Amino acid sequence: MTTPDFEGFKTRAVISEPLQGPKPVSGAGNVKYDSKGREKKVEAVVGKDGKKEEEVPQSFFSKYWLYILGAMFILPRLLGGDAEGSQGGAAGGAAAPAPA
């Protein structure tokens, strides 16, 4: 009995395909839509005189503060920066007695 016998196997499964909806047209017309097909919401910043204001670029620290903090905590550990902890437990204590 090395080969299975499927002659007696019958099923009543019904397979149905989902209905296809309208697809977005690619090209210059999709500029108003995001990747999920929804309309993009563009909020324009309007100044006091009614003109559109440009965005002020962020400073270096306001952009990368998270990376700077991560580097401050991770790099010293990777480079072996803990000088006091590397001396061991012998600092400030009495010498161990010699074995008898």
State the gist of this model:
By secondary structure, the chain is mainly α.
Question: Secondary-structure element order, as H and E?
Answer: H
Distance between the termini: 76 Å
Uncertain parts: none
Helix percent reads 10-25%
Helix count, DSSP H or I runs of 4 or more residues: 1
- So what's the overall shape? flat
Radius of gyration computed on alpha carbons: 35 Å
Describe the structure.
By secondary structure, the protein is an all-alpha fold. The protein has a domain at 41-79. Helix content is 19%, strand content 0%. It has one helix and no strands. The longest helix is centred in the C-terminal third of the chain and has 19 residues, at 60-78. It starts with 59 loop residues before the first helix and ends in a 22-residue tail after the last helix. The model has no long low-confidence stretch (mean pLDDT 74).
Q: Which helices and strands, and how do they pair?
A:
Elements (H helix, E strand, L loop, with lengths): L59 H19 L22
Which terms would index this structure?
mainly alpha; single chain; 100 residues; flat; 0% strand; 19% helix
